[in-house]
């Protein structure tokens, strides 16, 4: 007794599972996250260099929270000696977007309906920031 | 040929002093030791000739030269290739073991010897290493790193030693997360060994007997009838009733097949007397056969083909005699064969009918294809329907425990039927500890053809875990009778009990049933089937 | 010794990836060619192995029965441990595959020699079951979680698993429970292999190697997430490029990521040639995946060849006189 049919069928299902990502993304361009255009000029640097910010912004925000809320220190001095106000306002000064400016993303138009600047990358990497659980969103802050 | 002295059996204290520390050397570098008392004699020339099996010659495992045939390596490797193509089980079991070790302390031979090659995983590795070397790329290129090794005479001797230290009991397979069954590996390993004439005498002898004379013990038809009739005399002495069984009778409704251990030697014969009394009391229309006078099948311990050759007699005889269906007696590996192999080998049994108990009308749907039922299924059904009268107080001097035979428990699932019969026939019944019964039962240590006498030390070791569980209930409940449904058990346990827990007797289930069976018109019973006085029912009545 | 060799092999693999990416700048090789190759080897090798198994028949129906058979109607059958229906087999297999039913039975046998002689004690031993269950389930969840790198948009079930797994928000980013479980389990499996003399004795280099490589994968992944962060947007771009068949190497992904990827690739390529195939083999194990209805339905063996038998006629020829004398009926007078 071979039960060959069942073996083949199971293998097809197995291979289908493995190649699911290939089919799921079939025909879509790999455009990366839909990066918003920033309100301020692009020549200025963020509070730290971009590479550092990309990987460590959440650690920086955490440090800011502790510094401001727990230690009462509301000034951050960056690695180049420049001072910044510890406040989401500081971020939002540059990192703000308007829905109109936001070109429709190629790969995630459906999700990227908010104009909060974090969303696009965070959705792309499927990381949920918990900032807005407590803080009102940036559009509220700018009002 | 070296003359081998009969080995002296060590004392229980020596055997139970077990060293579980593995040797310092890697198992591939640890030589196989042939210590007298721990292995069986080699198969005899005449038996292999009778059966037409390869490489018949006189040889002894104690010799340096095993007189292997020219080009034996090719024979073995071709044999492996052939079996890989024939058995998916073999292929898969060779490929997927992760060596987690869960099987290690499940094997009675490992528990009682501490020899790591008796761990099922390593026993399989003995052949897996050769498989890897010759049949997988990783083994070919990485060699020992991948656990592969060359086949040479030392390896072959190692196989012989350890495949004849496995009783094919399948206990390891219950615990293996992938269901790897060492019995399957041993079966195939022994087949390979048989290709170059390496069987043991205690298997090849009975197989030759069974092939020519119909049963393992080589009892010829007239002697067979004589044996049964002398049991009938004993029954008459005990009950005053003359039982008249028939032999090779055409037109009987039922063919009865039981292992030959039941009609030669104690305590097997008492079980046989039990069958005779029960069938007589029921007025069952059944016959014995002298041609198919063996339920057991030592061919199963030789090779697939040999097992089929012996097994063929049962259906052939059922057909010749024109019976409607078959009842099988109490035997262990016999029921693995009847349950899992017979129909595939020698079926379909379309000339038979689905078994229907003539007494209760119960239709045994569970045997609708093989048309063969186990006697405890038959008897349990009788008791359930109140068709036999039992006086269990006749067994009151006994405190009974029950040993599940390996094969009926793990190759069939016959667990409740014998218990039901025993509990109806005996008032004092005690189970052994949970992890040593039912599907986790321990082997008697002498199964799969290892119940010879020259390997007594090995048998006493192998049976140690079983005996130890018996000893537990002996101490706790005063158990003095070990009931079972296996002829090898009945042959092997008396010695094992005497060795590890003296005072515990051994009985087949139907012996105890027949003790309790109240027969129509019987004289008051003052003795049991063994001819011993029944306490409380003594002669002054 | 065998463990050391395997450990060194994994170190060499890590060095290869480090040198290849950091020194030789072979990003394209380590980021694209090797992963593709590994994937093809994995899928191809897996299918090949399973088909190879499937080409051998199952000549006999040999389930290991672990419970009461179906016999008389009033005796309760163990419908899962001794199944006679397809459903029973499916449940039995599911229990085996998802919950490691057989391993759950595991006992530990100890020999205690006291005044009243030797005693064997068969106690329950669930650690191996627990450890491997944690290991395999964590592994599965981690793989599913990683789908967030391969799918865009990220499906809801992946997000859900991710948020459950990351529910312990200690610091940032949240610690994945499975990361901790996985690492502990793999270390447990390694230590038990080393610490139990019996298991160490049976272990081959081929048993340590996958453990080390998996350990390497887990550690590199954990380092990337919690300690030496890499740009995960770039990582996702690389991963998506692979599955969209438009592979590209984004700038600025650290070497740690390439080590992680190379170890995974090695594991994938190695998988079909090794014992890791137990993943496929368990489904085909004849002692578990068959119904125990032997006496009800005949099982067919495709190579069931004829064998030489000793017929009744031959038997009677030999014993006719003796049979007649004993009054046993014969065919030919």
What is the strand and helix layout of this fold?
The complex is a heterotrimer of chains A (143), B (541) and C (333).
Chain A: H1 4-18, H2 20-24, H3 50-70, E1 75-77, E2 83-85, H4 88-94, H5 119-124, H6 131-134, H7 138-141
Antiparallel strand pairs in A: 1-2
Chain B: H1 12-15, H2 45-51, H3 72-86, H4 88-96, H5 108-113, H6 120-135, H7 137-142, H8 153-163, H9 171-175, H10 182-195, H11 201-213, H12 221-239, E1 254-257, H13 268-282, E2 286-288, H14 304-321, E3 325-328, H15 333-340, H16 342-346, E4 372-374, H17 375-384, E5 400-402, H18 406-410, H19 416-425, E6 429-430, H20 456-462, H21 464-477, E7 481-484, H22 487-500, E8 505-508, H23 509-516
Parallel strand pairs in B: 1-2, 1-3, 3-4, 5-6, 5-7, 7-8
Chain C: H1 2-23, H2 27-54, H3 86-99, H4 101-104, E1 107-114, E2 117-124, H5 127-145, H6 156-165, H7 177-195, H8 197-202, H9 205-227, H10 232-243, H11 255-270, H12 278-284, H13 312-326
Antiparallel strand pairs in C: 1-2
Helix pairs in contact in C: 1-9, 1-11, 2-11, 5-7, 7-9, 9-11
User: What share of the residues of chain B does DSSP label as strand, in percent?
Assistant: under 5%
Question: What's the end-to-end separation of chain B, in Å?
Answer: 62 Å
Q: How would you describe the shape of chain B?
A: globular
Oligomer: heterotrimer
Helix content of chain A: 40-55%
What gross morphology of chain A would you assign?
elongated
Report the portion of residues of chain A in β strands: under 5%
Write down the domain tally of chain B.
2
Strands of chain A, total number = 2
Provide the descriptors you would attach to this structure in a database record.
heterotrimer, B: 541 residues, mainly alpha, 2 domains, four-stranded parallel β-sheet, 8 strands, globular, C: 333 residues, Fumarate Reductase Cytochrome B subunit, two-stranded antiparallel sheet, 13 helices
Structural account:
The complex is a heterotrimer of chains A (143), B (541) and C (333). Chain A starts with a helix and ends with a helix. Chain A is elongated and about 75 Å long. Chain A has one domain. By secondary structure, chain A is mostly helical. Helix content of chain A is 43%, strand content 4%. Chain B folds into 2 domains: 194 residues, no CATH class; 303 residues, no CATH class. Chain B has a 4-stranded parallel β-sheet with strand order 2-1-3-4. Chain B starts with 11 loop residues before the first helix and ends in a 25-residue tail after the last helix. Chain C has 333 residues and is mostly helical. Chain C has one domain: Transmembrane di-heme cytochromes, Chain C (Fumarate Reductase Cytochrome B subunit, Up-down Bundle), CATH 1.20.950. Chain C has 13 helices and 2 strands. Chain C has a two-stranded antiparallel ribbon with strand order 1-2. In chain C, helix 1 packs across helix 9 and helix 5 packs across helix 7. The radius of gyration of chain C is 28 Å and the shape is elongated. The termini of chain C are far apart. Chains in contact: A-C, B-C. The interface between A and C is large, with 42 and 50 residues.
């Amino acid at each position: 007794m071979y039960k060959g049919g069942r073996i083949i069928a199971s293998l097809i299902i197995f291979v289908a599972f493995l190649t699911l990502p290939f089919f799921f993304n079939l025909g879509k361009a790999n455009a990366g996250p839909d990066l918003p255009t920033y309100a301020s000029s692009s020549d200025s640097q963020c509070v730290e260099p971009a590479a550092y910010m990309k990987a460590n912004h959440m650690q920086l925000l955490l440090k800011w929270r502790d510094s401001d809320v727990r230690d009462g220190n509301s000034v951050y001095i960056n690695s180049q000696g420049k001072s910044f106000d510890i406040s989401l306002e500081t971020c939002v000064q540059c990192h703000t977007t308007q829905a109109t400016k936001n070109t429709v993303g190629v790969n995630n138009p459906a999700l990227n309906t908010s104009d909060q600047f974090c969303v696009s990358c965070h959705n792309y990497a499927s990381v949920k920031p918990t900032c807005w659980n407590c803080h009102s969103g940036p559009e509220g802050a700018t009002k | 040929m070296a003359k081998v002295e009969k080995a002296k059996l060590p004392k229980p204290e020596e055997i139970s002093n077990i060293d579980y520390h593995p040797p310092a050397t890697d198992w591939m570098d640890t030589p196989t030791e042939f210590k007298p008392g721990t292995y069986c004699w080699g198969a005899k020339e005449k038996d292999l000739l009778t059966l037409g099996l390869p490489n018949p010659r006189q040889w002894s495992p104690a010799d340096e030269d095993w007189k292997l045939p020219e080009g034996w390596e090719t024979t073995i490797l071709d044999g492996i290739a052939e079996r890989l193509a024939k058995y998916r089980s073999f292929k898969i079991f060779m490929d997927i073991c992760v060596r987690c070790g869960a099987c290690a302390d499940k094997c009675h031979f490992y528990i009682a010897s501490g020899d790591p090659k008796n761990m099922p995983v390593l026993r399989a590795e003995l052949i897996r290493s050769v498989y890897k070397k010759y049949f997988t790329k990783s083994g070919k290129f990485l060699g020992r790193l991948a656990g592969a090794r060359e086949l040479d005479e030392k390896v072959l001797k190692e196989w012989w030693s350890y495949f004849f230290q496995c009783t094919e009991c399948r206990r390891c397979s219950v615990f293996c997360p992938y269901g790897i069954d060492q019995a399957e590996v041993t079966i195939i390993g022994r087949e390979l060994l048989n290709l170059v004439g390496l069987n043991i005498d205690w298997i090849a002898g009975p197989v030759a007997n069974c092939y020519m004379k119909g049963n393992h013990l080589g009892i010829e038809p007239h002697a067979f009838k004589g044996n049964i009739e002398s049991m009938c005399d004993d029954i008459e002495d005990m009950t005053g009733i003359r039982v008249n069984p028939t032999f090779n009778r055409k037109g009987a409704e039922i063919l009865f097949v039981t292992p030959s251990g039941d009609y030669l030697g104690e305590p097997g014969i008492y079980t046989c007397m039990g069958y005779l009394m029960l069938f007589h009391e029921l007025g069952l229309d059944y016959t014995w056969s002298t041609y198919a006078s063996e339920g057991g099948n030592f061919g199963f311990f030789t090779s697939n083909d040999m097992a089929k050759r012996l097994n063929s007699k049962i259906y052939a005889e059922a057909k010749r005699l024109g019976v409607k269906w078959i009842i099988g007696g109490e035997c262990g590996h016999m029921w693995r064969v009847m349950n899992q192999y017979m129909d595939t080998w020698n079926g379909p049994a379309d000339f038979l009918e689905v078994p229907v108990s003539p007494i209760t009308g119960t239709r045994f749907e569970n045997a609708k294809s093989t048309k063969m039922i186990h006697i405890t299924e038959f008897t349990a059904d009788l008791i359930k329907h109140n068709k036999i009268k039992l006086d269990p107080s006749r067994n009151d001097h006994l405190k009974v425990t029950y040993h599940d035979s390996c094969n009926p428990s793990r190759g069939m699932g016959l667990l409740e039927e014998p218990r039901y019969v025993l509990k109806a026939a005996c008032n004092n019944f005690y189970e052994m500890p949970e992890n040593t019964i039912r599907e986790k039962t321990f082997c008697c240590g002498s199964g799969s053809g290892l119940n010879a006498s020259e390997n007594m030390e090995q048998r006493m070791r192998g049976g140690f875990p079983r005996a130890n569980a018996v000893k537990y209930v002996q101490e706790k409940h005063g158990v003095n009778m070990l009931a079972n449904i296996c002829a090898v058990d009945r042959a092997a346990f008396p010695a094992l009990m005497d060795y590890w827990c003296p005072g515990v007797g051994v009985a087949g289930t139907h012996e105890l049933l027949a003790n309790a069976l109240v027969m129509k018109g019987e004289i008051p019973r003052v003795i049991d089937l063994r001819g011993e006085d029944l306490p409380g029912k003594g002669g002054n009545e | 010794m065998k463990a050391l060799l395997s450990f060194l092999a994994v170190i060499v693999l890590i060095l290869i990836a480090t040198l290849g990416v950091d020194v030789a700048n072979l990003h394209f090789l380590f980021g694209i060619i090797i992963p593709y190759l590994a994937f093809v080897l994995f899928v191809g090798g897996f299918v090949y192995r399973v088909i190879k198994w499937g080409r051998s028949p199952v000549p006999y129906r040999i389930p290991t029965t672990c419970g009461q058979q179906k016999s008389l109607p009033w005796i309760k059958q163990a419908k899962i441990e001794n199944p006679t229906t397809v459903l029973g087999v499916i449940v039995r297999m599911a229990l085996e595959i998802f919950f490691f039913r057989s391993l759950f039975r595991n006992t530990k046998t100890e020999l205690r020699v006291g005044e009243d002689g030797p005693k064997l004690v068969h106690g329950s031993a669930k650690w191996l079951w627990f450890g491997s269950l944690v290991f395999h389930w964590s592994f599965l969840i981690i793989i599913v979680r990683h789908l967030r790198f391969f799918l865009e948009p990220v499906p809801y079930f992946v997000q859900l698993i991710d948020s459950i797994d990351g529910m312990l928000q200690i610091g940032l980013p949240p610690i994945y429970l499975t990361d901790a479980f996985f690492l502990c389990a793999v270390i447990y499996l390694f230590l038990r292999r080393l610490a139990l003399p019996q298991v160490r004795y049976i272990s081959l280099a081929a048993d340590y190697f996958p453990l080390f490589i998996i350990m390497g994968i887990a550690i590199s992944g954990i380092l990337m997430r919690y300690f030496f962060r890499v740009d995960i947007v770039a990582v996702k771009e690389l991963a998506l490029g692979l599955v969209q068949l438009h592979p590209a190497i984004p700038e600025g992904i650290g070497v740690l990521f390439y080590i992680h990827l190379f170890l995974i690739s090695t594991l994938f390529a190695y998988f079909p040639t090794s014992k890791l195939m137990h993943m496929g083999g368990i489904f085909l194990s004849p002692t578990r995946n068959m119904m125990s209805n032997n006496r009800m339905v005949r099982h067919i063996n495709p190579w069931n060849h004829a064998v030489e038998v000793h017929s009744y006629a031959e038997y009677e020829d030999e014993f006719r006189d003796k049979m007649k004398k004993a009054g046993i009926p014969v065919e030919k007078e």
